[in-house]
């Protein structure tokens, strides 16, 4: 069953990893996909082709989610190309890990700008369109680290926790117009990035998870399908942990 037939979605940071997985699963569910990337031009072009081959409309845009102006311009372009915006997934994110002792001001600011300010930028940019439509679903990609904290990731944890406060506030502000805002907190998701890690370390992480495996981008994408679709039409302001039971 196609759960997103005819819906238009914007997904930030979809040239790789989780965002790419969401774009593919959304297309399989019949959604049209506008997605962004930061520098991976070739990967974005390949994804655009792969998505279009699934019979939906798809387009990649180079846009820095940390920039207020670029986010405004992006949404204007997407509105021209796709007409309406039903779903926004703020997925773009980076890490610059270090103990506080060694963390530079630049590394703190950069992570907060790309992970958290981007959510403000994009929500602000789609707000008017969704208000006019009197519907919309916004999904923000936090992390288990935003819920629990993590040594060596204070900048990342702060950005991901900030996203939760922002989302709950949006749920309160925009609920009366049928705009829902929810958060997904992924645990350990195996992407190309984690494939580079030492196998022994990764095996240790897997064993510590109740479901005894790392998650896949598809595991996160399926949760996004639920929150983006009308199946979740009475759910807003929630944080859904998609982590194999890590936080249990
Ligand atoms: P990833 O493989 O590193 O991919 C990040 C994506 O974001 C890429 O498409 C990248 O584009 C894009 N991006 C980076 N900076 C950007 C910017 N300034 N503007 C627009 N796009 C930008 O990351 P991932 O593992 O898939 O993670 C995706 C999201 O899930 C992140 O928010 C991350 O914090 C969160 N998360 C991941 C895990 C995990 O275990 N992987 C766990 C919890 C939460 P380019 O390819 O052009 O650089």
UniProtKB/TrEMBL annotation:
The record's InterPro entries line, in alphabetical order, gives: 3oxo_ACP_reduc, KR_dom, NAD(P)-bd_dom_sf, Sc_DH/Rdtase_CS, SDR, SDR_fam
Q: Which Gene3D superfamilies match?
A: NAD(P)-binding Rossmann-like Domain
What keywords sit in the KW lines?
Fatty acid biosynthesis, Fatty acid metabolism, Lipid biosynthesis, Lipid metabolism, NADP, Oxidoreductase
Q: EC number(s) for this protein?
A: 1.1.1.100
User: Which parts of the sequence belong to the Ketoreductase domain?
Assistant: 7-192
Q: Which reaction does it catalyse?
A: a (3R)-hydroxyacyl-[ACP] + NADP(+) = a 3-oxoacyl-[ACP] + NADPH + H(+)
Give the metabolic or biological pathway.
Answer: Lipid metabolism; fatty acid biosynthesis
Q: Which GO terms describe its molecular function?
A: 3-oxoacyl-[acyl-carrier-protein] reductase (NADPH) activity
Q: Tell me which domain of life the UniProt entry assigns to the organism this sequence originates from.
A: Bacteria
Annotated family: Belongs to the short-chain dehydrogenases/reductases (SDR) family.
Physiological role = Catalyzes the NADPH-dependent reduction of beta-ketoacyl-ACP substrates to beta-hydroxyacyl-ACP products, the first reductive step in the elongation cycle of fatty acid biosynthesis.
Q: What is said about its interaction partners and assembly?
A: Homotetramer.
Protein known as = 3-oxoacyl-[acyl-carrier-protein] reductase
Q: Which organism is it from?
A: Mesonia profundi
Name the gene behind this protein.
Answer: fabG
């Amino acid at each position: 069953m196609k759960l997103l037939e005819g819906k238009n979605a914007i997904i930030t940071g979809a040239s790789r990893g989780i965002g790419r997985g969401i774009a593919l699963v959304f297309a399989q569910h019949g959604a049209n996909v506008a997605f962004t990337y930061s520098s991976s031009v070739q990967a974005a072009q390949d994804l655009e082709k792969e998505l279009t081959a699934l019979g939906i409309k798809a387009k990649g845009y180079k846009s820095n989610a940390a920039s207020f102006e670029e986010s405004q311009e992006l949404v204007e372009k997407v509105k021209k190309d796709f007409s309406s915006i039903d779903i926004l997934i703020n997925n773009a994110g980076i890490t610059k890990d270090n103990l506080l002792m060694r963390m530079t001001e630049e590394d703190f600011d950069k992570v907060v700008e790309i992970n958290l300010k981007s959510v403000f930028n994009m929500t602000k940019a789609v707000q008017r369109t969704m208000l006019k439509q009197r519907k919309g679903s916004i999904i923000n990609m936090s992390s288990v680290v935003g819920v629990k904290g993590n040594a060596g990731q204070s900048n990342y944890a702060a950005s991901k926790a900030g996203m939760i406060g922002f989302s709950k506030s949006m749920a309160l502000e925009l609920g009366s117009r049928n705009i829902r805002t929810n958060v997904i907190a992924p645990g350990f998701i195996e992407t190309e990035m984690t494939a580079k890690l030492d196998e022994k370390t990764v095996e240790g992480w897997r064993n510590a998870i109740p479901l005894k495996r790392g998650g896949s981008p598809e595991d996160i994408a399926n949760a996004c399908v639920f929150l983006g679709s009308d199946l979740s039409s009475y759910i807003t302001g929630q944080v859904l942990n998609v982590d194999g039971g890590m936080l249990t």
